[in-house]
Amino acid sequence: MSCSLLEFCWLQELKTVRDFLYQSKKTEPAEEKNQTDNELSWDTSDWESAWDGGDNKEGESTDNNKTGQSTSKDPWLQDCVVSLSPCSDLLVVAREHRAVFLSAKWRTDDSGREEMTLTVSWSGTLSSEEGECVSSAICIPLASQKRSSTGRPDWTCVVVGFTSGYVRFYTESGVLLLAQLLHEDPVLRLKCRTYEIPRHPGVTEQHEELSILYPGAMVTIDGFSLFQSLRACRNQVARAAAAGSDVIQPPPLAYKKWGLQDMDTIVDHSSVGIMTLCVFDQMKNASILGGFSASVKGSPPAMSQYVTVGAGPYTGFYYAVEGSSQPLLSHVALAVASKLTSALFSAASGWLGWNKNKTEEEAVQKQKPKVEPATPLGIRFGLPDSRRHGESICLSPCNTLAGVTDDFGRVTLLDLARGIAIRMLLYAGYRLMGVNSVTSQGWQLHTQQVCLMDPSTGALRTVNVPFHLALSDKKSEQAKDMHLVKRLTTLLKSRDVEPDILESEARSILLDIKHPAIKKQALESLLSNKNAPVSCLTNITCALHDTLKQKDPEEVDITLLQLCSSQLKLLQLYTDIHQLHSAPNVEGSTENQDSLEGIEDELSRIGPTLQHYAQHSSRPSVSFAQDSPDSPPPAQTFLSQMEVTDDGELKVIRGSEAEWNQLGNFLFWGCLCGKSPRHKVCETLQQAGISPQQLLSLLLSVWLQREKEVLQKPVESVRNLHTLLAALSNMKGAVEESWDPQSVSPWWQQVRCTCIQSHNAAAALLAALVAHRAAKASITSRADSKLQSEWEAVSLELEQWVVCVRQLEDVLVLQTLLLVPPLQGPAGGATVQCSIKTLLEGGTGGIADSVSKWVFKQSMAPERLKEILQKRENTDGDDKRHKEGEEGNEEKGQKDPDGTAELLVAVCQRFPHSLSPDLLFAHCCWEYVVQWNKDPEEGRYLCWAVEHLKLISSPHIQLGISTMMWSTFIVKRFSAAAFLMEKVGKAPKDRLCRRDVGMGDKAMTSFLGCCVQLLQVLMEADSAVEEVSAPELSVEEAWCGAEGPASIAELALDQRGVHFPLVQHHCLLASLLHAAMTFSLRVKPLSLFDSKGKNAFFRDLTTIQLMPSGDMDPGLVSLRQEFLLRVLTGWVQAIDDFSSSASGSPPLPSTGPKADWWPSMCLELGSLLQVNPDILQRHLVCELYNQGLDLRAEEVMLEVEDKDVLGSQLLVLTGQRLSYSLLHSQSQTQAAMELLARLPPTLCTWLKAMDPSELRCPLVPLPQTSRLVGRLIEMLPEKHAQYSLALHLLEAIEALTTED
């Protein structure tokens, strides 16, 4: 056994405490005071000598002589009630009716070390009833929240039990909070169970509880109820003290009271908590208690378990079923013996003797409170022992065991679930007074210990009992082995142990373990530890192996011996490989050069592509030194990845991708770099028994993973790879001597499969080139020994390699293009990683889909893509390339600074069918509309999707793509926009657009314009379908094995034809909506159509609907005409080139409200809506003149048919202009006034009746107005009623012009 005492605190005022508690005794003689300090210094020489087990009688007698005087007295502390707070910050020492509270304080000793001391904080009298004394006490720290409080407790409550039966609650300063008479017997023991997070399996969460033991009863108070009551009382005391009052009203207290029956004497108890029996125990108890015919409830009831100790029986077990007793509400007796002010004065005056005279503390006579009767609780069973008397009981932290001390000095260990004693410990020479369980902090191994108190000296014994030494049966050897395993585990966790010490101690522990299974467990634990060096693992495993070999073969465990042998083999392999990589390479690099003939030509051919690929794939990244792939893996990782089979071969365990690559780096990267001897490494691996297939997989994985380093020295790396591949191919079991002539070699098929699945295009291509050469050389060397019939298999094998290399070259060029970052802005997501496998699984449109995603990330305009694709067609012939000359090179450098166009052309040349212009435009169109659907605010995406759609030359593909776009993405938002505008009667605001359509007002305007263009493309494609045959889609010969979803073009060709009138009907509505949003017009668009027209909207375009026909209602035609006139007015107002030059009007933009196609669109709409187009033309001419755009008006005037009506309208406009110049202009000249006086009265009156405010641009140069009047005279016939008025206007304007 081992024992240790740890000092955590000092008591500085023991003499003061004793003097206060023993005031009634006479003062000690002066000659005894020197001895008192010695007595109170906790001299431990007596028990320390006994603990050491010495037999020195002389020393013992001398010791007795020295302390004879002190031992002649009774130990004063044993007569006191002592309680220490669990937080070690408050100690209560009480005797009879007095008590002293000692609080923790920190002080600095002479050496400068901080230490904790307990000093007196309060002393006084606790009893308030005559003749009562303190019989028990407990300190309970209280925190504000039981679950979330992480710091120190808020305060500590001192609970004191008295011989009168009262239980009183005090603060740390001695202020009485609550007093309760629960039973009229002395309080024997106070115990508290606090909340604790369940840390042990099978233990339920136990709630807080205070239990009070009386000779024949037990009271339990719920912790939460007690906490609330104490907090309320403490707050009332604080308020009463502040107000000078001495009366408080404490709340009632809820408790349960049990009458413990069938036990003669009870001295201690333990509340185990709530438990639930299993079904078997429930049936067992029912049959024992109720007999054969007892009934059993469906579910076991929850019960509170209580264990008592004493006599008759020695230990008793009680079970109280939950709900069998209701909580009682107490009649609280606030036993404040003195006024509150006196209590506070008592706390301030302390123990200095000022309180000896109690005349000022008059007792408050109160009526004795009512005591509730106890609920009878019979004993369930017990442990009878007539001679043994229990003295104390302590519960284990896991609530499953309890320790009981008795008057014979034994400690009995109880199993609370089964109700039996499972062990009894005997400590000779000690009479045990208490037992507890603690956890040692001074040991590296956390061990459960037992605390024993010796009543003769008051000494506290902390005894550590190692588990395996406490056993006395056959399992003690196994328990000792388990203890050694724990020691080994602790040793391996320590990082400060020197390797030599670690090896010696671990070897000693491992050899001391007896049980083979535990020894195997310890060895595996050692081999998996990363702190142990390789030499240590090898030496310990070798020592264990030698020990097992020296034993009798029949006594040796076979599995343990095999484990030692296999691990030694793996450790030796690890050491050999590590040494080979550490030693300099002395092998030559000229072997097997014949089979590499022509490889340099291949490298030079693909060299530029490799350079472009390396340039774009090398992106900066952050890495750490410990994560470097060049660093070898720990031996423990190597051992975890290898296992030895029954036949002695090694098998690599495939773990995570990172572990697999790390192992491949360790085995082969040094060889690929040329730093390690390639043949020696391969020979070592072959001798170890690893299969060539696994070695090949590891080699290819590291080759593909280290692509960046491979491309730095491609020629050297390729040669080293060829050497390793040839060496692995020559191993036994690699290339079979005779494979099926009608199939390919599984060995080379493994290489091809790896290259096909790899996303590292450059490394995969180089590996395929090397493997192709190696396979060809291997086949050539075997050709002489093969029959003629086997040449078919040979040709099939090589054909597979030709196709694979071709595909990898295509993938390399494609991947290089996909790696090109966008010129502006972020990359917009991760780069698309492609491989042969992903492209084949992507279907016939997988390649075009990848390029379309790249085009989107590049934000490449459709016209730019069209230009690049046309360049591909132009560069197909050699003559064209020679013809371009230096100018073409300079122009190419200016337009393509990063070589993007050249790369795209190269990709399209390698995929002439998969990347034909129509297929690429179709996929780009679909990619842009998909991206627009994700973010409708980006109207540019939808516009470019329509532009890509227009570039498709095949009307069949164009028609199918348009139909799919409309039905999949467009029609839902289009209908929402139409219904919203119909509801509000005008162009809706931004908020409404976002709510109903999912985009802002500006984005919705752009969306409606794209809808118009989309439907126009759809109508044009539908008209052209009959004239052109459907295209035949094909793929390249190397990629004909594609399996996967159909391409967009294939889906487009499968679409049904559309109903042209229905498409035109929707296009008409889209144009109206677009115009209303562009010019912010008030209109209800659906109200411009009759019921047939409304019902036909938003139907499937492939169906035939009942369309409007015949003459439309004049009211609807009037509404349509009014809307189109407002559109024309809005367009004219949007044009801002008010000053037309003589050379002509400036060009207008192609989009937006100023676009030049709005008038023609209105005329087309007018013809469809049964509106007279001449009315629209005349209105447009008048609006242009009104805006001062005379030149544009003259152009439109030529198309007007009814010149007479137009002349009359323009005559009024001319009069308004002249009226403004003569009558309303602020800068009227004298000549103008004289001219006005000379005008004919009829003309003068007519001019005065004109309203120039209707003109948006009244100040127009006179020559323009004169030109307008000239046009009027030409249009009006001489017999027209206003012809003479026009002549007078012309004379007036010419006169005015002459005056100016």
Q: Characterize the overall form.
A: flat
**Poorly predicted spans:** 28-39, 41-72, 332-365, 428-434, 439-448, 467-474, 622-626, 878-894, 1138-1143
User: Helix fraction?
Assistant: 40-55%
Distance between the termini: 130 Å
- Number of helical elements: 45
* Average predicted confidence as pLDDT: 80
Tell me about the biggest sheet?
Answer: 6 strands, mixed
* Rg computed from alpha carbons, rounded to a whole number of angstroms: 52 Å
Strand content: 5-15%
* Total number of beta strands: 29
Q: Give me the secondary-structure category.
A: alpha+beta
Task: Chart the SSEs and their pairings.
Layout: E1 2-3, E2 10-11, H1 14-21, H2 33-39, H3 45-52, H4 57-66, H5 68-71, E3 81-84, E4 90-95, E5 98-108, E6 114-125, E7 134-142, E8 155-162, E9 166-170, E10 176-181, E11 189-193, E12 209-213, E13 217-222, H6 223-243, E14 254-260, E15 265-276, H7 279-290, E16 302-311, E17 315-321, E18 328-329, H8 340-349, E19 375-377, E20 381-383, E21 390-395, E22 401-406, E23 410-415, E24 420-426, E25 435-439, E26 448-454, E27 459-464, H9 476-493, H10 499-512, H11 516-527, H12 534-550, H13 558-582, H14 599-617, H15 635-640, E28 642-644, E29 650-652, H16 657-673, H17 678-688, H18 692-705, H19 707-712, H20 714-729, H21 746-757, H22 761-783, H23 791-818, H24 836-841, H25 846-858, H26 862-874, H27 878-895, H28 900-910, H29 917-934, H30 939-951, H31 955-984, H32 990-996, H33 1001-1024, H34 1048-1053, H35 1060-1079, H36 1091-1096, H37 1114-1134, H38 1158-1168, H39 1173-1186, H40 1190-1197, H41 1203-1224, H42 1230-1238, H43 1241-1249, H44 1262-1275, H45 1283-1299
Parallel strand pairs: 2-6, 14-19
Antiparallel strand pairs: 1-27, 3-4, 4-5, 5-6, 7-8, 8-9, 9-10, 11-12, 12-13, 13-14, 14-18, 15-16, 16-17, 17-20, 21-22, 22-23, 23-24, 25-26, 26-27, 28-29
Helix pairs in contact: 9-10, 9-11, 10-12, 12-13, 13-17, 14-22, 14-23, 16-18, 18-20, 18-21, 20-22, 21-22, 21-23, 22-23, 23-28, 25-29, 26-28, 29-30, 29-31, 30-33, 31-33, 33-35, 37-38, 37-39, 38-39, 39-40, 39-41, 41-44, 44-45
